[in-house]
């Protein structure tokens, strides 16, 4: 079965004032050369979603939010709903990032509700899972990620609406990266676990991204691993040239 077309998404996290939109413009320009070969998205802070979506309109680069509330509207001060992100021009939303799980105590059930909200609003959900350093050292990485997938995903998923991102917590922003064998083992396990949540054809077509210290220097070897269908890039996505170098390293399928 051929692997799906790679998808490389940038997560700007809590970085980016108006001036950073120039980086998005540069990604738009560079993305033309990747059209049809690699799907791209940038997920800026909520304050920039609308303006970035306007700037990237008509390009091959989608825009995503970094989180959404489970409800569409209501008395939830400071929160943003999936419908609001869609209204602002987003096509994607990240849910269950480990920084949200840690900083805001989000449980698998919370993530599942956000995934449902994303789908309700017509967004593609990028669902993050990953083990901590202690969990990996205890030999529990596979068990932890399988549990997160089981608890965070609904049944009947489609590849068009759901992307999985495996991000070992200890690899995020640290410069540390699992061995290629460990990435391969985890991604195969994720694909296998998806069988409980989607039809076989959807499982085969669903993108499973790797995230955690992906850089231009290591992107080619990581993106060539079996069942790695792209990357969720943090720090290196803040610079258009680095983000484009990573995307350009994705194998053509
Ligand atoms: O969402 C992105 C990840 O948390 C990876 O971040 P990083 O590339 O800065 O390690």
What does this structure look like?
The protein has an eight-stranded parallel barrel with strand order 1-2-3-4-5-6-7-8, surrounded by six helices. The model has no long low-confidence stretch (mean pLDDT 97). It contains eleven helices and eight strands. The chain has a single domain (7-29, 40-248), classed as TIM Barrel (Alpha-Beta Barrel). It is globular, with a radius of gyration of 17 Å. It has helices spanning 21-31, 46-56, 82-87, 98-103, 108-120, 133-137, 141-152, 180-194, 200-205, 219-223, 240-248, and strands at 7-11, 39-43, 61-65, 92-95, 124-129, 162-166, 208-211, 230-233. It is of the alpha/beta class and 253 residues long. The protein starts with 6 loop residues before the first strand and ends in a 5-residue tail after the last helix. Bound molecules: glyceraldehyde-3-phosphate (G3H). Glyceraldehyde-3-phosphate binds at residues 11, 97, 167, 172-173, 211-214, 232-236.
What descriptive keywords fit this protein?
single chain; 253 residues; globular; binds glyceraldehyde-3-phosphate; alpha/beta; TIM Barrel; 39% helix; eight-stranded parallel barrel
Walk me through the topology.
Blueprint: E1 7-11, H1 21-31, E2 39-43, H2 46-56, E3 61-65, H3 82-87, E4 92-95, H4 98-103, H5 108-120, E5 124-129, H6 133-137, H7 141-152, E6 162-166, H8 180-194, H9 200-205, E7 208-211, H10 219-223, E8 230-233, H11 240-248
Parallel strand pairs: 1-2, 1-8, 2-3, 3-4, 4-5, 5-6, 6-7, 7-8
The structure holds glyceraldehyde-3-phosphate (G3H).
The site of glyceraldehyde-3-phosphate (G3H) has 14 residues, from β8.
